[in-house]
Amino acid sequence: GQLAESGGGLVQPGGSLRLSCAASGFTFRSSIMSWHRQAPGKEREFVAQINNISGTTNLADSVKGRFTISRDNAKKTVYLQMNSLKVEDTAVYYCAALSRGIWGQGTPVTVSS
Q: pLDDT tens digits for 37-90?
């Protein structure tokens, strides 16, 4: 299976971005999907997760109220809507199907004025 992220880029503080992650080669609808990020010089950290059945979501405290995770099983795509971005959100963002050991290649997000 493969995951391909897109939608990263440069945005000013307070701005928004929507990341997409397209899945292929595995049963997307039965997979719990998640987003993670790794800032320069730091460990990779969990950002958000969405359940495969109920669509229940879980977000890291640092992004609650600003980020939203969603999925479209028909398009085999998971999204991360990021609002009110802060400089400290700067990182490479990865999507993952952890139970299947599948990670994307990452998409960089830079928040800077």
A: 999 999 999 999 999 888 899 999 999 999 999 999 999 999 999 999 999 999
> For residues 24, 73, 33 and 70, what is the CA-based torsion angle, rounded to 10 degrees?
130
40-55 CB burial, b ≥16 within 10 A, e <16: eeeeeebbbbbebeee
Cα 54 from Cα 5, distance rounded (Å): 23
Is 73 in contact with 88 (CB distance < 8 Å)? no
Distance CA 101, CA 77 (A): 17
d(CA 91, CA 109) in angstroms, rounded, equals 5
> In this structure, are residues 71 and 77 in contact, taking their beta carbons and an 8 Å threshold?
yes
